[in-house]
Amino acid sequence: MRKITLGLCALSLLLILPFSGLAEEAEKDPMKWKGDLAVGISLSKGNTDKSSLSLSFSADKKLSQKLDWTNKGIFLGGKSEGKTDSETLELWTALKWNHTDRFFTQYEIPFLHDRFKNFQYRLTPNIGVGYKLVQSEKTDLSLKTGVSETFTKFYDTGDTDSYFGLFAGNDFKWKISESAEFVQLANLNWDLSNTNHFIARLEATLVTSIIGGLGLKLSLIDTYDSEPESAGVEKNDLTFLTNLSLKF
After folding, report:
1. Cα torsion angle, 21, 25, 28, 33, sign
2. Is residue 52 a contact partner of residue 44, using CB atoms and an 8 Å limit?
3. Tell me: the pLDDT tens digits for 158-188?
4. What are phi and psi of 159, to 5 degrees?
5. What does pTM read for this prediction?
6. Measured between alpha carbons, how far is 83 from 116 in angstroms, rounded to an integer?
């Protein structure tokens, strides 16, 4: 496993080296951050059948004409009778290097903290290539695939675990109108040390503008783990979110 980790790091370095030339380009053409902040409620079905507070953000920046930096996060938390009954934090950051109008490479680091799945943290850095199948004013569809390594630390024992895997996914955006947009993301991470184990995640979001930068954001997040690593944890988790968002 150590050799795999070192190989993944070496590949990351090899692919990131060309970015040094893009840094000067970014300085000449600075771009502003774009994103939103959102607050609302969530309803979960699966490991926790609860409604809770929902906080989320997204922050994207075009570092250069070819390099995009994307970030987002979601926190779900709540208490009942003085006890915490939901506590989940997801963070995600990615660099996308657009080699052509359609072909790109992508470097992602998803982070998950989930108290009720016994994850103090789960970190899944991955490196992959992608291709835009559809690119128009209203619709954008990309497919991507690559390699990943998953690192997990468990609450109850403090033990850590890791495995090397393959991932595949898609990004879809549809600008329905001037005031509405639909975004769908799907990812599959396959454990190569145990071919029966995979984790699939689907996220679908509809955003509508209300007035100015204020909008309504409706999201569905479905996560499926074919072989949960902790006893008593269900395979499927479904979360609905209703948020008010403010764009910046």
Report:
1. negative
2. yes
3. 999 999 999 999 999 999 999 999 999 999 9
4. -70, 155
5. 0.82
6. 13
Residue type at 180? A
Domain hosting 24: range is 2-247
For residue 18, which phi and psi values (nearest 5 degrees)? -60, -15
> Which tokens in the block code for residue 19?
């970015």
| Number of domains making up the chain | 1
Tell me how far apart the alpha carbons of residues 135 and 102 are, in angstroms, rounded to a whole number: 8
Task: Return left, alpha or beta for 27; rule: phi > 0 is left, psi -120 to 50 is alpha, else beta.
Answer: alpha
Residue 63: how many CB atoms within 10 A of its CB?
A: 20
List, for residues 183-236, the tens digit of each pLDDT value. 999 999 999 999 999 999 999 999 999 998 999 999 999 999 999 987 778 899
Phi, psi dihedral angles at 116 (to 5 degrees): -90, -10
Residue owning tokens 């997204």 = 58
CB 222 within 8 A of CB 202: yes
Q: Could you identify the residue written with the tokens 């499927």?
A: 236
* Alpha carbons within 13 A on the beta-carbon side of 16: 12
Backbone phi, then psi, for 24, in 5-degree steps? -65, -40
Q: For the domain that residue 143 is a member of, what is the CATH number?
A: 2.40.160.40
What is the CB neighbour count within 10 angstroms for residue 170? 16
Q: The tokens 């992608």 sit on which residue? A: 130
